[in-house]
């Protein structure tokens, strides 16, 4: 299932002065829908006096093997959602969330990993790190940049993991208060020994842009560099009106879709977005914002062509590899093949 679920807050953990981890109790009938892979996120409905609610995406900082569903939220300047959650959420309260989504996740946990995180970008990276150490066989290097020592989320947990996995985990902290902002030159020196690793990057835009440039310059293949970007959602998937049926004179395209190991062929009306078609036909297609502002509905075009009406998250390399956003895709060719695998 892909629709909203009401869950209960089991615990709110103070991580730093401006960051909280929120653990959710998932109703028994929805446990299977909340099975997740490391690096994914939840979309949370945050109440609002002005609009009824707003939707915000928060990464899962727990790892699947830990048996809990936990997101971590850091306050941002003028960030309505993060500030409301940090100020108001308490154990026992109910909130609405969408099931886990996102593609910022390793295909295999047995790789050697280079993880680069800035600030709250540690959240999905932490899930990957713990999963790789628990279930993988490779080595893990984490470069974690923060403003100062007091702003390091998961500081004690990272120290414990570094001691427990001393032969496999290296943690490098970068503190702006002591070392200034990390430049491309700094990053090049730090990551140069690890260009055979699989790289995952999450943090402020300038940090990720610099790290990505360095990794590409050092020869790391594009397919081994993974970025997670979040924007404040303009739309609200918790209050989406039903799509209005549109009379279409054109002959529909046809689309072959592979999702959850099942392949089906569908007629695809030319003015119907791919996600809307799949949901209408009963597919459990992943989605979150439905505005082209997150990666939850990302899929791959195997053959044929589509047009995206809006895209604020995929870059040119993603598109060159055939990745598109189902919530914004219309068919351009008569036949299209799509996979979520």
UniProtKB/TrEMBL annotation:
Its EC number is 1.17.1.-. Keywords: 2Fe-2S, FAD, Flavoprotein, Iron, Iron-sulfur, Metal-binding, Oxidoreductase. Its cofactor is FAD. Residues 253-341 form the 2Fe-2S ferredoxin-type domain. It comes from the Bacteria. Gene3D superfamilies: 3.10.20.30, Nucleotide-binding domain of ferredoxin-NADP reductase (FNR) module, Translation factors. GO terms for molecular function: 2 iron, 2 sulfur cluster binding; flavin adenine dinucleotide binding; metal ion binding; oxidoreductase activity. Residues 2-107 form the FAD-binding FR-type domain. Signal peptide: none annotated. This is 3-ketosteroid-9-alpha-hydroxylase reductase subunit.
